[in-house]
Amino acid sequence: MSANVKDLKFTKEHEWVKTEGEIAIIGISDYAQKELGDVVYVELPAVGDSIEKGDACANIESVKAVSDIYSPVTGEIVEVNEFLAGKPETINKDPYGAGWVFKIRMDDSGELNTLMNAAAYEEYLKGILEEK
């Protein structure tokens, strides 16, 4: 499921979203995985959970830190990437493909309009990098 980055939407918290109909596939950006360093554990949300946009619903533990993953949309978790339980480093190796974290059935696809497209996200990252 390797995603074409220019087709993704992004949050300021560095989650990415790919949509397939009413399903949103969520992961963390390449920038986020590089900042975290080697991912050693992923705590996944539970299938069936109802999540509000902006809720912390999963977390990623790396050699440097533990970081929350926030849902970019409101809906119900319909699938999680169980593969990450045994191979969390997949997020480092393929953040936009096999490293996806969860899928959510969106309550309102209009929420996607509040997210950045790839070009806007690149500009956002430039601002972050300039501040460092």
**Any idea what the CATH superfamily is called?**
RNA polymerase II/Efflux pump adaptor protein, barrel-sandwich hybrid domain
Number of strands: 10
The largest sheet is:
7 strands, antiparallel
Mean pLDDT: 94
Radius of gyration: 14 Å
Q: How many domains make up the 3D coordinates?
A: 1
Runs in which pLDDT lies below 50 for 5 or more consecutive residues are: none
Total count of helical runs of at least 4 residues: 4
Q: Fraction of residues in helices? A: 10-25%
Class by SSE composition: alpha+beta
CATH architectural type: Beta Barrel
Task: Please list the strands of the largest sheet in the order they lie side by side.
Answer: 5-8-9-3-2-1-10
- How far apart lie the N and C ends? 33 Å
Q: What's the CATH class label?
A: Mainly Beta
Lay out the secondary structure.
Blueprint: E1 9-10, E2 15-20, E3 23-28, H1 30-36, E4 39-43, E5 50-51, E6 56-62, E7 66-70, E8 75-80, H2 83-86, H3 90-93, E9 102-106, E10 116-117, H4 118-131
Antiparallel strand pairs: 1-2, 1-10, 2-3, 3-9, 4-6, 5-8, 6-7, 8-9
Could you walk me through the main structural features you see in this protein, from its secondary elements to its overall organization?
The protein has 132 residues and is an alpha+beta fold. The chain has a single domain, classed as Beta Barrel (OB fold (Dihydrolipoamide Acetyltransferase, E2P)), CATH 2.40.50. Helices cover 22% and strands 35% of the residues. The protein has four helices and ten strands. The chain has helices spanning 30-36, 83-86, 90-93, 118-131; strands spanning 9-10, 15-20, 23-28, 39-43, 50-51, 56-62, 66-70, 75-80, 102-106, 116-117. It has a seven-stranded antiparallel sheet with strand order 5-8-9-3-2-1-10. A three-stranded antiparallel sheet has the order 4-6-7. A hairpin with a 4-residue loop joins strand 1 and strand 2. The chain is globular, with a radius of gyration of 14 Å.
